[in-house]
Design goal:
295 residues; 2 domains; 8-stranded mixed β-sheet; 4-stranded antiparallel β-sheet; 15 strands; 26% helix; 27% strand
Length: 295
């Protein structure tokens, strides 16, 4: 994940994160990474690959290398929440780039086929290394090796904004993607210290055993994935849903417990948190998150 710019503390940092999926013998699996302890954001946390959307992600020449999604289509997929349309497509490109940098998976096609070693391109790991070293960029790589980016393979799944009480705040769009044939996922060893495929339920079990640290969006999204049987179902759910922007609002109860309220909660717009009504909140009990959803 790209480190926050200095100005990020004064406003929201546009970010994109990708829930990379594959179908395993016991159901859907997702690739998760652990952020390095030295990271300025989410240090030591189990997260999905992702990071800051840079200005370069909206470069016209780079957007022109997108073969299956144009700016207007991207804007419609994001429900018109970003303008101009180039900014919407940049969200997809940023997620695609971060997925490659952090997980080594590149959503791109050459001559209509998914990019993979031996299909007219060098090692994807070599290309990722050159990106990390700053000797090239995604646009130059696509031109040199004749591939086109495939942001259309990303399905918009969720939109979270960091609570106002946090100093460094991210405006993050989450996408789901399926591992392309012929590619493998590997953590980068730079911004992430480990990476592995896990069933969402196992990732949550590790969290409850104290073996993994999660932030609220990761916890909630893993919980959603745990209810889906396969990658195709995740994409179908993304297409069918109306994504609600989640800006959690924190509250502390008199008994010392805490919770994050979501849009639709009876107390989200203010008032008594214990009064009857819908519950859309993440409660912290004994140091662990517990999602409470009730009408």
């Amino acid at each position: 994940m790209s480190e926050a710019r200095e100005g990020g503390r004064r406003g929201l940092i546009p970010s994109a994160s990708v829930l990379l999926l594959r179908d395993g013998p016991d159901g859907v699996e997702t690739f998760v990474v652990v952020r390095h302890r030295r990271s300025s954001s989410f240090a030591g946390m189990l997260v999905f690959p992702g990071g800051q959307v840079d200005d370069a992600d909206a470069a016209p020449d780079l957007l022109a290398r997108c073969s299956d999604l144009d700016p207007e289509q991207a804007a419609r997929r994001l429900a018109g929440r970003l303008s101009p349309p180039d900014r919407a497509l940049a969200q997809y490109v940023g997620g695609l780039r971060e997925l490659f940098e952090e997980a080594g998976v590149l959503l791109a096609r050459k001559d209509g086929d998914w990019l993979a070693p031996g299909r007219g391109v060098p090692s994807l790991e070599e290309m990722r290394h050159s990106l990390h070293e700053g000797s090239t960029d995604l646009l130059a790589l696509s031109r040199e090796h004749g591939f086109e980016l495939a942001p259309g393979a990303l399905s918009f799944f969720a939109h979270w904004i960091t609570p106002e009480q946090v100093a460094t705040r991210f405006d993050t769009r989450f996408f789901v993607a399926t591992l392309p044939p012929g590619q493998e996922a590997r953590h980068d060893g730079r911004e992430t210290s480990s990476g592995e495929w896990l069933r969402p339920a196992e990732a949550l079990a590790r969290y409850r055993r104290g073996e993994a640290q999660l932030v609220p969006p990761t916890f909630v999204l893993l919980s959603e994935l745990a209810r889906l049987p396969d990658a195709a179902s995740a994409h179908a759910a993304a297409v069918a849903r109306e994504v609600t922007t989640i800006l959690p609002r924190w509250f502390g109860a008199p008994d010392g417990s805490t919770a994050f309220l979501y849009p639709g909660d009876v107390a989200y717009e203010g008032g008594e948190v214990d009064r009857p009504g819908p519950r859309r909140r993440l409660v912290v009990r004994d140091g662990l998150f517990e999602e409470v959803v009730a009408d």
